[in-house]
Structure formats: C-alpha cells, structure tokens
Amino acid sequence: MRIDVQLAKRKMSVGEFAERVGITPANVAVLKNGRAKAVRFSTLEAMCRVLGCQPGDLLEWVPDESEVEDQAGALRP
Questions:
Q1: How many Å apart are CA 66 and CA 30, to the nearest integer?
Q2: Which of 20, 53, 54, 63 has its CA 20 to 30 A from that of 10?
Q3: 19-28 in b/e burial notation, b at 16+ Cβ within 10 A?
Q4: Range of 8's domain?
C-alpha cells in the first residue's frame, strides 16, 4: 500500500485520514506496513474518496520472496 505517498501529497495526518475514512489509526498502520491480509472494497472506496485518487494510486503488487526465488531458479540453465 502506498498510503504514505498519498498522505504526504495532501499533507494529511494519519489521524485525520483514519477519521475521515472511518477506520482506526491502528488499522491505517496495518495497511501502511503491508500486514493487512485483505481490504474491503468499501474501505478502499472510502480511502480513494478521501484522498481523491484511484485504487492503483494506493495499491502496488510486489512478489513475495518465494516467487522471486522461483523465477530466478527458472532462469538458470
């Protein structure tokens, strides 16, 4: 999640963001640190509404370590 980037662009605090989205600051931290296992579409929609952005501005796919190792192994002769 790239919440930090969007918050910085808008000079918005985590507390203000959490209040406007309707989640706790602790849950914002879970999202920011990449520890969330899932995000409700309604929460993602609220986050985009508050930040005036698209879901792609907040989400970034990064392969986990095992996928990177598997891909590297597949490239070796």
A1: 22
A2: 63
A3: eebebeeeeb
A4: 3-75
Distance of alpha carbon 18 from the chain centroid: 13
Give 29's Cβ-side CA count (13 Å radius). 4
The model's pTM:
0.79
DSSP string, the chain: --HHHHHHHHT--HHHHHHHHTS-HHHHHHHHTT--S---HHHHHHHHHHHT--HHHH------HHHHHHHHHHH--
Instruction: Count how many domains the chain has.
Output: 1
What are 53-62's pLDDT values in tens digits? 999 999 988 8
CATH of the domain at 44: 1.10.260.40
